[in-house]
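Problem 12. The chain below contains 154 residues. Write out its predicted structure in token notation.
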Amino acid sequence: MKTTNYAKTIAGKKVVNGQRKVKLHISAADTKAKKGDPQNCAAARAILREVPNCMAARVHVGRVYLLKKDGNWHRYKTPDALRTEIVAFDRGGKFIPGEYELVPMAPSDHKKYRRDTYSRSETNRSFPGNSPQKSPRKFHVTQGVRKGDTIYRS
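Solution.
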């Protein structure tokens, strides 16, 4: 099965999918971070301290990006537990130290994959003219937390 790295850059550097899981131990010292800043949050501090060859980190609600010495940003999916801590912290609560595991992106996590899959759904393949068109799915946007990764596209 061929995996595709979708064309994307952050500050002119290519984004590729991470290949291995990354274990992350966020300590109490890491939690003294800046609210709403993906480059200076507790998880980003822990990544810079623990992950070898990592020069920078950006932690978002849905994705984590690590800038490695190879010059590429490596993309990982933000674990649900870490996402919950990010939301609580950005809304004024405490970030609770703990252990988290960043996992590489699955092909089904890409917007292109979801768009192609949903456009070929069963209701759209039945007899032409007899099937009602589905309205697009509405996504919930969590308010009061850091912005998504779209602001870094260049």
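Discussion. DSSP finds four helices and seven strands in the chain. Students who got a different answer should revisit the alignment rule from Section 12.3.
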